[in-house]
Design a protein that fits this description.
- The chain has a domain of 51 residues.
- The protein is built from 3 helices and no strands.
- The radius of gyration is 17 Å and the shape is elongated.
């Protein structure tokens, strides 16, 4: 679920990103606009959905000898921290670079 949702939502931006090196201001402006809306609005919905699924998994999981619900909480926190840092770099800092 994690890999496919990230691939489907952010894949088009990844394909558009190399074109920004052509130097066309139209492509760069379009990428900035698409990066903001897809990277902030749509990705936030995706991150929220994944965090809520992980929360439900941690709440309703019955622990066994190989994994506990604490590991699920740790994975969710790590996921949210990594994605927040990725958003900061790609949406907040990227436009400052050009």
């Amino acid at each position: 679920m994690l890999a496919m949702t990230h691939f489907l939502l952010l894949g088009p931006l990844a394909c558009l990103w190399p074109l920004t090196y052509l130097g066309s201001s139209v492509i760069v402006d379009f990428y900035d606009l698409a990066n903001f809306w897809v990277g902030t609005v749509a990705a936030s919905a995706m991150y929220g959905t994944i965090a809520s699924v992980l929360t439900m998994a941690a709440i309703f999981y019955t622990a066994d000898k190989s994994i506990s619900s604490g590991y699920i909480w740790q994975e969710m926190v790590l996921y949210l921290v990594v994605e927040a840092f990725a958003w900061y770099l790609s949406v907040w800092e990227y436009p400052k670079a050009h």
